[in-house]
User: Fold this.
Amino acid sequence: MTADIPLRLSNIYSQLPVRFFERVKPTIVANPSVIIFNNKLAEFLNLDIESASGDIGLGIFSGNTIPIKSNPIAMAYAGHQFGNWVPRLGDGRAILLGELLGKDGQSYDIQLKGAGRTPFSRMGDGRSAVGPVLREYLISEAMHTLGVPTTRSLAAVLTGEVVQRETVLPGAILTRVSHSHVRVGTFEYFSSRKDTEGVKVLANHLLKNNFSQITNSSNPYKALLQAIITNQAKLIACWQLVGFIHGVMNTDNCSVVGDTIDYGPCAFIDTYDPSTVFSSIDRQARYSYKNQPLIAQWNLACLAESLLPLLDENPKKAIDIAKEQLNTFQSIYHHEYLKIVRRKLGFFTSRDEDSKIAQDLFLIMEKGKADFTLTFRSLTLLTSNDETADNSFCDLFLNTNEINNWIKQWKHRCSMEHYTKDERCAYLKKQNPEIIPRNHLIEKVIRSAVDEENFTPFYKLKEALGNPFRDHSLNSVYRKPPLPSEVVKQTFCGT
Assistant:
């Protein structure tokens, strides 16, 4: 059903050539109901809150009502999945309704995930179970609050129908919001078909709508590649320093605008171990925590290869340009990483020894099996110059001798800056969250929703994650690491 409703959608991507997408309408669902609606995001997108959060919005976000100005499409793309080339993927269960203008003057994609089969669905049903929808809503919104570039979640609805996975599960649809859903795999799709014109159209689309500041560059395609590399490097630095593991960094899950996208088997580190892998399908640990910067650079090399015909007419010069840009990734990443880790350590200024201080702490955390999030948050204890507080910090580690030596090093570094202990403590609290979307908490709210049809734990966790830097009770279930019996060892795509 189509309706003339107050949703001012534009259709920027669907105005591209028809080979960029397949036109498809969402599949009607039987008895939709709202799980949650993101009022703050809706306000930012200039939506009428009363309409969008009521029956009109439910019709849209369930796919049962199509705004009259919407041209729903499934986007075409390819990708390297765990290093293996797949020439045709595309949106198999996601449908782009169009774009909305945010209060910042930028355009945002509005996409329904789990809205039914598309020409790219292959053997899939195009649907989503409620678990992955709740997971993405919680984690994407938490990442936004933590300051990590990400897609957003506008609404989650139950379909009133079931989906068949290993068991029968409640169906749901997520409304995802993004600066763009163009992926590295989108460029690969056209490049692999020798469709240089398609690559150029896609690049021009991004230059106009997402990277307008570089449109007038002497070589805009070189500038585009550099901008994407910069955004990716900064994004991965953010991931590493909140302990986030994406889990499935295929090129079709790599956004060219530098947002975190596709939260399937993602998870957060509890006990720090750089070799950590959660995804059940990542059997070779390709996408482990420590490998994420390397994989990001690998994905960007795939993008650069797709852009070669645009970088220069001379193939050799084009390759040289691509290599030059790709070689900047590591320096940009390390610069951003060090900038963030300095803040997490409570340093207001930069000194040469800061990198070693950080490296030493991570080594001690690994040996001492310390909790990633609580280690950084608990640095506030060290600002009091109280032996009892120092001991409380040391209790986070199994190897107290090494951490005691590190504390002396850290305090000496702090003494080189003229800030009070209260100023440093407040600064540390602003940089280091006390709570994150811990894996066991996410699993508990999903189990409650699926097994008991009880969404109260979901709402409570969502509320807590909205204030991650606030002090919580030491006994807060949202603050504490998992008990041994609660540890999540594997995550699943769960589509």
The longest strand covers residues 152-164. The CA atoms of residues 40 and 275 lie 37 Å apart. The chain has 17 helices and 14 strands. The chain has a mean pLDDT of 96.
